[in-house]
Design brief:
This is Lamin tail domain-containing protein. The protein is mostly beta strands. It contains three helices and 34 strands. It is globular.
């Protein structure tokens, strides 16, 4: 089987299209090239051609191709994405996708790849990539979702044997909950719906154990796998926060927004929205999902329109965290506002971003995300930094490259780290000036000097302090150039409207590779 998906300028259409085969026969081992009736002469030199009066359109980036017999019975299905090409240049167009091992049709993406034939494909003959590619691994449980108080949806990484994976005894819910019905959902066969004997209880943590099910290739899940879940609770502002933003993708790339559940609660994101505040203050909001979706504590969710393209640009991305949406609001490259709304349109989090928030020494910020530094701190500019080079300048679906644990100031000001190397590699790229204000209404000025007393940076000017917080210095001077390696003095002045003034001096070291 071979899929030619080289119509790169096609606009995706969510509707289903179908073509009906004329009467023809196909002997064992024979190939048939299926195309539009108008294109049969073009393909005739390559072999047997079957022209369809109505040929299904294949959406750019991915689609489902299904083959039915005359009674409507599903014979085969391929739900492909452009990530299957595994080569970005071939995914741009002109190359077909080929199945590797015809004897292993159950394994989806791992059994498909771009053709290696110099013509871009092999219509009418054996695939250029033909090889043995057996599936020897059992299925893996990816996630558990709650459909209702008595129904669970389990998602696996591959197709299951629908006849041999429906025994209720293969699924154990603890504490003390019986599974009374199991349905493997067609036509994908990667999801299982469990019906329970009793309602799940609010505030109670459950565990599902799965064992002995088989995948489509016959591999048995002999070693039990587990996943925890709870009935979702009501989210309050700040439970889920914006953890990473890519608003200026590389050429051919796509935007993404990463969320993280920083609460201790399981939270439902069904009917939540993501939005951008326009210049006229109007909110352009789009659905994250209308289906059941529960985010566990500390779990990430990456919202994007094209997970396949995101994976091509960031190979370390965790695909099980991806949430594909049909569209995102426009996030301008210069500046914008990302807003998260719950099902009741309550604002859960907001980040106002600007391209100036990027690390000044990165010459090209296209494709560089802004990462949250401290999970517990507010969603303000000083709590974000450009992602590190050692992760490819973005970390969708996993721990941020620039993350710092919460540092509590043991005195009014604490510097961490004392020595930093602003080279963008993710290891101590900046220093933070942590503070704990003893009184409300304190205002700060922070300037940086070299050891000769020359002004290097006006870091903070007349900033009203919260009770606790931090500022960051990325090692640049007022001309947005990297300060030379050496010692520097942070001169900190605090004052309030009552005329109280305090001054502090702290030393830091800008390091680097010699």
């Amino acid at each position: 089987m071979n899929i030619d998906e080289n119509r790169r300028n096609y606009t995706p259409d969510a509707t289903t299209s179908a073509g009906v085969f004329p009467t023809f026969s196909l002997r064992p081992g024979d190939y048939a090239i299926v195309c539009r009736a108008a294109d049969t002469l073009e393909f005739k030199p390559f072999g047997k051609v079957v022209g369809l009066k109505t040929f299904p359109t294949l959406n750019d980036g991915g689609d489902a191709v299904e083959l039915f017999d005359q009674t409507g019975k599903l014979i085969d299905k391929v739900n492909f994405t452009s990530a299957w090409y595994r080569e970005a240049n071939k995914a741009e167009g002109g190359w077909s996708l080929e199945i590797i091992d015809l004897q292993n049709p159950c394994v989806s993406g791992n059994n498909w790849v771009a053709s290696t034939n110099s013509a871009g494909g092999t219509p009418g003959k054996e695939n250029a990539v033909k090889a043995s590619n057996p599936d020897n691994l059992p299925p893996t449980l990816l996630k558990v979702q709650i459909k209702s108080a008595k129904e669970l949806i389990l998602t696996f990484n591959e197709k299951l044997d629908s006849a041999l994976s429906v025994q209720p005894t293969y699924y154990t819910i603890s504490p003390s909950m019986a599974v009374v019905k199991v349905v493997v959902i067609s036509p994908d066969f990667t999801t299982v719906e469990l019906t329970l004997n009793n309602d799940l209880q609010p505030g109670k943590k459950y565990d599902v154990q799965v064992a002995n099910i088989r995948d489509c290739s016959g591999n048995i899940l002999a070693n039990p796998v587990h996943s925890s879940f709870m009935l979702p609770e009501v989210a309050v502002p700040g439970d889920i926060v914006i953890n990473e933003i890519l608003f200026n993708p590389r050429s051919g790339g796509v935007d993404f927004v990463e969320l993280v559940n920083r609460s201790s609660k399981y939270l439902s994101l069904q009917n939540w929205q993501i939005g951008n505040v326009k210049a006229d203050t109007a909110l352009d909001a789009r659905a994250i999902t209308t289906e059941p979706l529960v985010l566990a504590p500390q779990q990430y969710l990456v919202v994007t329109t094209r997970p396949d393209i995101l994976l091509q640009h960031y190979s370390k991305a965790k695909t099980d965290a991806f949430q594909k949406v049909s569209s995102l609001p426009s996030f301008p490259d210069e500046a914008g506002t990302v807003v998260i709304l719950d099902a009741n349109k309550q604002e859960i989090d907001r980040v106002v971003y600007h391209e100036d928030m990027h690390f000044k020494l990165i010459s090209d910020v296209n494709g560089v995300s802004l990462e949250r530094i401290r999970l517990e701190r507010p969603s303000i500019a000083s709590n974000f930094h450009s992602a590190a080079s050692n992760v490819g300048y973005a970390s969708p679906g996993y721990r941020n490259s620039q993350v710092q644990e919460l540092a509590m100031a043991t005195q009014v000001f604490t510097i961490e780290p004392k020595v930093f190397t602003p080279d963008g590699d993710g290891d101590r790229d900046f220093t933070t000036i942590n503070y704990e204000a003893a009184k409300n209404g304190m205002v700060a000025n922070i300037t940086v000097y070299d050891t000769n007393g020359r002004l290097i940076k006006n870091l903070v000017k007349n900033e009203l302090l919260a009770n606790q917080g931090f500022f960051q210095w990325d090692g640049t001077n007022n001309q947005q150039q990297k300060a030379p390696i050496g010692y520097y003095v942070l001169f900190i002045q605090l004052f309030n409207l009552q005329g109280n003034v305090q001054t502090f001096k702290e030393t830091v070291v800008v390091g680097g590779k010699l």
